[in-house]
Design a protein that fits this description.
Elements: H1 2-28, H2 38-45, E1 49-55, H3 61-77, E2 80-87, H4 91-103, E3 108-112, H5 117-127, E4 130-133, H6 140-145, E5 152-157, H7 160-176, E6 181-185, H8 193-207, E7 212-214, E8 223-225, E9 230-234, H9 243-252, E10 259-262, H10 266-277, E11 282-288, H11 291-298, E12 304-308, H12 314-324, E13 338-341, E14 345-347, H13 350-361, H14 370-373, H15 386-394, H16 398-405
Parallel strand pairs: 1-2, 1-3, 3-4, 4-5, 5-13, 6-9, 6-10, 10-11, 11-12
Antiparallel strand pairs: 7-8, 12-14
Helix pairs in contact: 4-5, 7-8, 9-10
C-alpha cells in the first residue's frame, strides 16, 4: 500500500515538473509556444502573396522612392512580398519580365512600364494574374478593349488632360509674375504623350497673353512670335555625341533668359548648366519630391515643382490587394476596370517643398499610411465600396491627405 502511494506521489510530482518546464520554455522561446507568436499570426493570414512590380528604369529617383515605400512600409504592414524587375526599355524585356513573374507565382503585377502594355495585359489574363497600372492612364479605346478582362484591375495616374493643365498652370505662374523671357524644354515631344500635353499647356498659357505659336507640319515643336515675349525651345534626350548638353548650355546662356519651363527632368538636365551660368534664372518643372529636387530648391535652382510623392502608389496597391483577396467589387466601376485621375502636389517655394518632401519621403508616416489604406481595403473595412475607393484616390492633394491623417 505504501509503495503504491509512493509511486502515485512520484507520478504527480513528475507531471507538475513537466508542466513547469513547458511553461518556462514557452516564455523563453516563443517559437515553441503554440499560443501567440509571429509564426502563427502569419499562418492565420495565409501564405504571403507575391506581387511583381515592373519598372522602366531602376535608377530613376522616383521609382527608387516607390520601391522604398513598397518594401520598407507596405511589406511591413501587409502580408505581401514585392518582386521588382530590372529596367525594362524594350517591349521584349517587358514581355520577358511578365513571363518571369508568372513563373515565380505572383498573384498580381503592378506596372510602371509601357513598352508593350496591351500584350502584357493579355499575357496576365491568360495566366490568371491580376494587372494594374501604377502611375499612368489608358486611352478610351484601350479601356473599352479591356472592359471584359476580369484580371485587369485598372489604372491610377494623371490623365492627359491633367498633364496639359499642369504645364498650363506652371507657365501661367511665371507669366503672372511678369517674366517675359522663357526657355521651354519639351522632352520627348511629340512621341511621349505626357511631355507633349504638358508642353501644349505651356503653349496655351503663352497664347492667352498674345504670343503666336507656329506649329510645324512634321509634328515637332514649333516656333513663337511676340513683341513682348522671347521664347526659345529645346527638346529630345542625351545621346552618345554629347550634343544635347551642348545645346542646353547654349540655351541657358542666352542673354536675358529669366525662366526655364521643363516638361520633365529639370534638375537632371539643366542643373549643371544653371550652376555654371552664374545667372539668376528661375526653373519650373514636373518631377518628384526627391533628393535631387531638395538640393535644387535649397540651391535656388528650382522654385516651382509639380511632383509625385513616393506613397502616391499606395491606392493602386490597395486595389490590387482587394483583387487578390477576392474583393473585386470594391475596385469595379459598374463592373468594369477603373481609370482614376490622380494629379500632382504643387510646391511654389522652398518652404512648401520642404514640408511636402518630408511627408513624401517618410517610411514611418508616409502620406498614405496603413490606417488610410485600410479605409478602402475590404478585409479591413467591410463597409467600403467602389465609390469610397474612387473618392479616396481623387483626394490626393497635400492638404486633403493631411486632413485625412488628422
Amino acid at each position: 500500500m505504501n509503495k503504491c502511494l509512493n509511486k502515485i506521489g512520484l507520478l504527480v510530482f513528475s507531471l507538475l515538473l513537466i508542466g513547469l518546464l513547458a511553461a518556462c520554455n514557452g516564455d523563453s522561446d516563443p517559437q515553441t509556444n503554440g499560443v501567440d507568436n509571429g509564426a502563427n499570426e502569419e499562418q492565420d493570414q495565409g501564405p504571403t502573396q507575391k506581387i511583381g512590380v515592373q519598372i522602366y528604369d531602376a535608377t530613376d529617383s522616383e521609382l527608387i522612392a516607390f520601391r522604398r515605400y513598397y518594401q520598407d512600409y507596405i511589406e511591413d504592414n501587409y502580408n505581401v512580398e514585392f518582386l521588382f524587375s530590372d529596367s525594362l526599355d524594350t517591349a521584349e524585356a517587358e514581355r520577358t519580365s511578365t513571363e518571369n513573374f508568372i513563373n515565380q507565382g505572383v498573384a498580381a503585377i503592378i506596372s510602371f512600364s509601357d513598352s508593350d502594355r496591351m500584350s502584357v495585359i493579355q499575357m496576365t489574363e491568360d495566366a490568371g494574374v491580376y494587372y494594374a497600372i501604377g502611375a499612368g492612364t489608358l486611352s478610351d479605346e484601350q479601356l473599352d478593349m479591356l472592359s471584359d478582362n476580369e484580371y485587369f484591375v485598372g489604372s491610377i495616374g494623371p490623365s492627359l488632360a491633367e498633364e496639359e493643365e499642369v504645364g498650363y498652370d506652371m507657365a501661367k505662374h511665371y507669366i503672372e509674375q511678369g517674366y517675359t523671357n522663357f526657355l521651354l524644354y519639351a522632352g520627348g515631344y511629340p512621341f511621349v504623350d505626357m511631355h507633349l500635353m504638358r508642353t501644349h499647356g505651356m503653349i496655351r498659357a503663352l497664347e492667352e497673353v498674345g504670343v503666336t505659336y507656329n506649329a510645324r507640319e512634321d509634328g515637332q515643336i514649333g516656333t513663337f512670335e511676340s513683341d513682348e515675349y522671347t521664347i526659345n525651345t529645346v527638346y529630345g534626350f542625351p545621346d552618345d555625341s554629347g550634343a544635347f548638353f551642348g545645346t542646353v548650355a547654349e540655351r541657358v546662356n542666352e542673354p536675358g533668359l529669366e525662366v526655364i519651363l521643363t516638361a520633365g527632368l529639370g534638375v537632371e538636365f539643366f542643373g549643371t548648366a544653371l550652376a555654371q551660368s552664374g545667372q539668376d534664372i528661375r526653373m519650373g518643372t514636373v518631377a518628384s519630391f526627391e533628393d535631387a529636387y531638395y538640393e535644387g530648391f535649397s540651391a535656388g535652382q528650382v522654385d516651382y515643382l509639380a511632383g509625385k510623392f513616393s506613397s502616391s502608389i499606395g491606392p493602386i496597391f490597395a486595389a490590387v490587394y482587394n483583387a487578390i483577396n477576392g474583393d473585386m467589387e470594391v475596385v469595379r466601376n459598374n463592373g468594369n476596370p477603373f481609370r482614376i485621375d490622380q494629379g500632382y502636389w504643387i510646391a511654389t517655394n522652398v518652404d512648401e517643398f520642404n514640408e511636402m518632401y518630408e511627408m513624401s519621403n517618410s517610411t514611418e508616416n508616409p502620406a498614405y499610411t496603413k490606417e488610410l489604406l485600410d479605409m478602402v481595403i475590404k478585409s479591413e473595412n467591410p463597409d467600403t465600396d467602389y465609390d469610397n475607393f474612387e473618392s479616396f484616390v481623387q483626394s490626393y492633394s497635400f492638404d486633403e491627405i493631411t486632413n485625412l491623417q488628422d
